[in-house]
Write a structure and sequence with these properties.
alpha/beta, six-stranded mixed sheet, 20 helices, 10 strands, 65% helix
């Protein structure tokens, strides 16, 4: 097994033997004890079979040392031994089930939590469909590894060692040699071919991930596909991905056939050789018919689990590959972390300040070039400018999706890098341009603003956002399902739900990131009124494209190519006849022409 595989196994072991979890360790020990008992009984069972055959054939020497039992008694003992073997295996599984499920749950939760800690930069460069597939396969891989590595490979090795010892002691060393050579050749062939097949399976997984991503991407953009009549184009794109998967899957099937046939040749050769040796021993009188039957029983006990070795090893290797990808996610460092001595943000009024902030998503392409501005507690500051000027970037830095490259961003004179992210996020409410809703009820989506909010609080927030009456007009009221990304609601309705959600959160600082630019004029005015009402008593940063929505702001900041070119009130900036006045006149002309 490659070193990377052992590394993954080492990562899993602490979940099976966790510190401070005595009940887990007890269950593991009991399960292992049941496993050993079942294997001891399995190895002893053929002796009862041999004794029964010898008793029936008149060679009752063996039956004598079996406590004097007759053929019927020995047959019953044989059946009881088989039953006890199965019983101990089931007890083993029952004791271990809770341990396995706990490990599975703990690892899945750790992965899910870590993914939410990763930076915005990571998430915008990853494909969501592919990411979910990696998590799904990784979690399934853990389950498979726990079940088969501990209860298939381990027991198989233990059983082979015991049977080999019996063959050498009870029969002849040459029986052990033949069996050992057969197992060695079988194992070498199985592992060699399976390693080759794992590479093919990895290719098949990649094609599966690609096809799944294309399917999810197309379904998420269902409307866009319809707008451009691209159904056939999307189907063709998906079919190309599935064709790659088909090709890899066929290679997997062909290589499996080769593996199975090769295994059969080796195992059958070993079985025939041992049985011929036993048959010759019976003919010479060295062995009894019962001995011949017992050798046959042991060979069947060996060959049956060995027949699954290739499948189990392949699946374990695949599970290790899948888990390796998942652990790769866990090893992905979070770009933004709390400082070691980070303290909760203490909001006294909600003043926001940028001091000579410089930032770029790429070091070679700076976005903000020394921005300095301050919004005093309770003030409304508007940030305007053309597309690409860096307006939305300021909002992302405020929420600390990224850290500034130079300078500082402060809230009530506290650097956001020195406070906990949780407290920072609690202090800021965001209403984005496109409010994204969960595929759940309106009630759930509004309640998302504050965990544990009462229904009265939810209704109060909906009334403040002026959407309560609309919700009551729906047949299912607050229990109405909004659909994927809220597609069952109009743009204005989604925005009002988003506003209600933010009102329920009740943050001291409000960030409006082009919250009305995607709406029609009438709806925009209604939403704008609700936003202004929500902003009362709060520090508000408004990032806007339409200047008419920010004319009331206490201060307007005009950005161009990452630099502040103008600042002042609406009237002051119009009087300057500068960049803001040009943008204002141009937008007024566009609205009149429309």
């Amino acid at each position: 097994m490659p070193a990377s595989g052992w590394g993954v196994i080492q990562r899993v072991i602490p979940y099976l033997w966790p510190d401070g979890q005595g009940w887990v360790k007890r269950r593991v020990v009991i399960a292992l004890a049941m496993l050993i008992l079942s294997k001891l009984i399995a190895v002893a069972t053929p002796f009862f079979y041999k004794a029964a055959v010898d008793a029936l054939s008149g060679e009752d020497v063996s039956a004598a040392w079996m406590l004097g039992m007759g053929a019927v008694g020995l047959t019953v003992a044989y059946g009881m031994a088989r039953l006890m073997n199965v019983g101990f295996q089931q007890l083993r599984d029952a004791f271990f089930a809770r341990v396995g499920q706990r490990a599975l749950r703990a690892l899945a939760l750790e992965t899910f939590t870590h993914i939410h800690r990763l930076s915005m930069r990571y998430h915008i460069t990853r494909k969501t469909g592919g990411l979910s597939r990696i998590i799904e396969r990784g979690v399934k891989g853990v389950e498979f590894l726990l079940r088969f590595l501990l209860f298939s490979i381990g027991p198989l090795i233990l059983e082979l060692i015991m049977i080999a010892a019996i063959l050498a002691v009870v029969f002849d060393i040459w029986y052990l040699v033949v069996v050992a050579v057969t197992i060695a050749l079988y194992t070498w062939f199985t592992f060699a071919v399976t390693e080759w097949r794992v590479k093919i399976r990895k290719e098949m997984n990649d094609q599966d991930t690609d096809a799944n991503q294309k399917a999810i991407d197309s379904l998420l953009n269902f409307e866009t596909v319809k707008y451009f009549g691209a159904e056939e184009r999307e189907a063709s794109r998906y079919d190309v991905a599935m064709a790659g998967y088909e090709k890899a899957a066929l290679k997997t099937s062909y290589s499996l056939a080769f593996l199975n046939f090769g295994q059969s040749v080796l195992i059958t050769g070993g079985l025939v050789a041992v049985m011929v040796m036993a048959a010759l021993g019976v003919e010479r009188g060295d062995l009894t018919v019962g001995d011949f039957v017992m050798v046959n029983a042991y060979m069947i006990q060996i060959t049956m689990p060995l027949n699954f070795l290739g499948t189990v090893y392949r699946e374990i290797r695949q599970a290790l590959v899948d888990m390796g990808e998942m652990f790769g996610l866990l090893e992905q460092p979070a770009e933004v972390n709390d400082a070691p001595n980070a303290k909760p943000l203490q909001v006294r009024g909600g003043a926001v300040e940028l001091r000579d902030v410089q930032f770029g998503y790429d070091a070679a392409r700076p976005i903000l070039k020394g921005i300095s501005l301050k919004a005093d507690a309770g003030q409304t500051i508007a940030i305007v400018g053309s597309s690409g000027s860096g307006k939305s970037t300021i909002g992302r830095l405020l929420f600390r999706f990224y850290d500034v490259n130079d300078g500082a961003l402060l809230i009530d004179d506290q650097d956001v890098r020195e406070v906990t992210q949780t407290s920072l996020h609690d202090a800021i409410g965001v209403v984005p341009q496109d409010t994204v809703l969960f595929n759940d009820t309106i009630r759930y989506n509004i309640a998302y603003g504050r965990d544990g909010a009462s229904f009265q609080d939810i209704e109060g927030a909906a009334k403040a956002a002026k959407i309560h009456d609309f919700i009551l007009s729906l047949p299912e009221g607050y229990e109405t399902q909004v659909g994927e990304r809220g597609l069952k609601l109009s743009g204005g309705e989604k925005q009002r739900v988003g506003i209600a959600r933010t009102i329920l959160k009740n943050p001291p600082i409000l960030l409006l990131d082009e919250a009305t630019s995607a709406l029609d004029t009438e709806t925009e005015q209604d939403i704008q009124d609700a936003l202004q009402e929500m902003g009362q008593g709060r520090t508000v940063l408004t990032i806007a494209h339409r200047l008419s929505t920010v004319a009331h702001a206490d201060q307007i900041i005009v950005l161009e190519k990452g630099v502040i070119v103008e600042r002042g009130t609406h009237d002051d900036l119009l009087a300057k006849q500068g960049r803001y006045a040009d943008l204002w006149l141009r937008q007024q002309a566009e609205e009149e022409a429309a």
